[in-house]
Design brief:
Shape: globular
Number of domains: 2
Structural class: mainly alpha
Order of helices and strands: HHHHH
Number of helices: 5
Number of strands: 0
């Protein structure tokens, strides 16, 4: 999730700022600083529960990412998100960021 939020930060800007303020009570700093801190706090929260936040922690290696993306395409999973604009190429960037 942290990688998704990072890659999609512009598309999710308003919601991320709302999330930063309402969930994490982040009220000071620039919009970018608020978003950065909200993403950081999200990662820290999951890790505090013992949830790994990096694909590499699950044994996924970077050269498997193209295979995963091809499987998305093979199964017709080519648009995701609430706005249907998350493509396999964007998915690849998210997966790479999650390493």
């Amino acid at each position: 999730m942290p990688s998704l939020l990072e890659v999609r930060r512009e598309q999710k800007r308003a919601k991320l700022l709302q999330y930063a303020e309402r969930v994490w009570h982040i009220e000071s700093g620039s919009e970018e600083e608020k978003i950065d801190l909200a993403i950081q706090k999200t990662r820290e929260f999951f890790e505090s529960l013992g949830v790994k936040t990096r694909l590499s922690q699950y044994g996924v290696v970077v050269d498997k990412i193209p295979v995963i993306v091809e499987q998305l395409k093979a199964h017709g999973m080519t648009t995701f998100s609430e706005t249907q604009d998350l493509t396999p190429e964007i998915s690849q960037r998210i997966l790479e960021g999650a390493m």
